[in-house]
Amino acid sequence: MLNHAREIVARVGFNPYRVAFDDQNLIDLASNNYLGLARRAEVREAAAHALREYGVSFCGTPVASGHSLLARETARRLAAFCGLEAALLFPSCYQANSGVFAMLSGPDDLIVIDRGAHASLIAGVRAAGAKIRPFAHNSAEHLETVLQRAAGYRKIFIVTESVFSTEGTIAPLPDILALAERFAAIPVIDDSHGIGVLGARGRGVLEHFHIERFRGIYTASLGKALAGMGGMIAGEAATMEELEYLCPSLIYSTALTPPVLGGIGGALDVIDREFAELGPRLWRYKDILATALGEKRQGGGAPINAVACGETEAAIRLTARLHQEGILSTPFIEPSVPKNACVVRLIAGAGLREEEVTRAAECLRTCI
Amino acid sequence: MNQENCLERVVKAIRVCKRKARTIDAGMRLEDDLGIDSFEMLMLIGELEAEFNISIEDADFEGVSTVGDIVRKLEEASC
């Protein structure tokens, strides 16, 4: 697989793994900077303030020197932001997702997971040693069929994402939660592309679907709309307390750094204050690109546009062509997507100027 | 269970995972021809369990690489 990708990169003469992001003239349709907060002055200042107060790093795991008041307050704010009781902070969402299942489940359990789930969730469920049965992407009907067959398990988990990152499809969460209730299963939702994006106040998928008293496990990346890095697991306080003492990917990792924590706090402030303006702008930009793509667009309801390319080489060639035109995009190739189902993903964050998005749309009409 | 009937039922299970597959025959390779990776194989095993009303240990299907291999495995199991 790696050699195949190398051959294509050499043939096309463009390496998407090594595109310098430093070029300020590029129109960024590649990052997950949904709200444009990564460069906002208030967020930079909040990060800088934490840096001045606490230094560059806590130089320790949470159980050693990393459990600062700043970390505790950030976790508290994030939990409240999503409408949940408590949250734990991880060095990455990959570590949150890959570590959580081994703590909650074992060989006597069943994990039913969306076929299109992120690699971190797949790594996590594989590590648990439970029986794994994927269900068809976003199909509550197939999920129900799989659950109806399940018998004799100690616990059942239903795992999905709120927004699937490749194409922006949104999970039918109310249907999934109804099935979880009916089959006494524990829902695990990764809201990495929903937090700061979905919902009337940008508070994520639970707000989007008006879900209150969520009784499951919620995970999210802090490095997308929240413009930081790291990940979170949130849910009921008792479960979080258990994980805090048990989860190796938390216990044995150096805590998130002060500027990251400070920046996340700054980002939450901006979202609370300005989402009413930033949110609609993000959706408007999505629509501008969607209109330009027309029938070539592949995707769902989230502010993500994707162009179906088929083979790996076609995806890399389109990324290269867009780069020539001054547009940074993301090719999704195997193994991130199924064979011959490669796409180029485009996210027009609210931090872009409207004329940049319009210019990108014109380029897309020409290039695709 | 005759071989033809078994193949039909295996194809039915595969179609749950691969709705867009045009033709599916015994000689087709699961990964290279049908794009069924190791994760999707778990979904297929679930469908086979339901179709044949049996319980399958995932490890028993680790060496399976073609549609025909699945048919043979299931025939062996029913002997």
Write the layout of secondary structure elements.
The complex is a heterodimer of chains A (368) and B (79).
Chain A: H1 2-12, E1 27-28, H2 41-54, H3 62-66, H4 69-82, E2 86-90, H5 93-104, E3 110-114, H6 119-128, E4 131-135, H7 140-149, E5 156-161, H8 173-182, E6 186-190, H9 205-208, E7 217-221, E8 231-235, H10 237-246, H11 248-251, H12 258-293, E9 297-298, E10 305-310, H13 312-324, E11 327-328, E12 330-332, E13 342-346, H14 354-367
Parallel strand pairs in A: 1-11, 3-4, 3-5, 5-6, 6-7
Antiparallel strand pairs in A: 2-8, 7-8, 9-10, 10-13, 12-13
Helix pairs in contact in A: 1-13, 2-12, 4-12, 5-6, 12-14
Chain B: H1 3-17, H2 38-52, H3 67-78
Number of strands of chain A: 13
Number of self-contained structural domains of chain A = 2
Number of strands of chain B: 0
Rg of chain A computed from alpha carbons, rounded to a whole number of angstroms: 20 Å
Radius of gyration of chain B (Å) = 11 Å
Q: State the CATH superfamily name of the largest domain in chain A.
A: Type I PLP-dependent aspartate aminotransferase-like (Major domain)
Note the run of SSEs of chain A as H and E.
HEHHHEHEHEHEHEHEEHHHEEHEEEH
Proper CATH architecture of chain B: Orthogonal Bundle
Low-confidence stretches of chain B: none
What do you see in this structure?
The complex is a heterodimer of chains A (368) and B (79). Chain A folds into 2 domains: 2-40 and 276-367, Alpha-Beta Complex (Aspartate Aminotransferase, domain 1), CATH 3.90.1150.10; 42-268, Type I PLP-dependent aspartate aminotransferase-like (Major domain) (Aspartate Aminotransferase, domain 2, 3-Layer(aba) Sandwich). Chain A contains 14 helices and 13 strands. Chain A has helices spanning 2-12, 41-54, 62-66, 69-82, 93-104, 119-128, 140-149, 173-182, 205-208, 237-246, 248-251, 258-293, 312-324, 354-367; strands at residues 27-28, 86-90, 110-114, 131-135, 156-161, 186-190, 217-221, 231-235, 297-298, 305-310, 327-328, 330-332, 342-346. In chain A, the strands form 3 sheets. A 7-stranded mixed β-sheet of chain A has the order 2-8-7-6-5-3-4, with helices on both faces. Chain A has a 4-stranded antiparallel β-sheet with strand order 9-10-13-12. In chain A, α4 (69-82) packs parallel to α12 (258-293), α5 (93-104) runs parallel beside α6 and α12 (258-293) crosses α14 (354-367). The model of chain A has no long low-confidence stretch (mean pLDDT 94). With 79 residues, chain B is an all-alpha fold. Chain B has one domain (3-78): Non-ribosomal Peptide Synthetase Peptidyl Carrier Protein, Chain A. Chain B has helices at 3-17, 38-52, 67-78. Chain B is globular, with a radius of gyration of 11 Å. Chain B starts with a helix and ends with a helix. The mean pLDDT of chain B is 91. The A-B interface holds A 115, 122, 131-136, 142, 145-146, 149, 335, 338-341 and B 16-17, 31, 35, 37, 39-40, 42-43, 45-46, 49-50, 58.
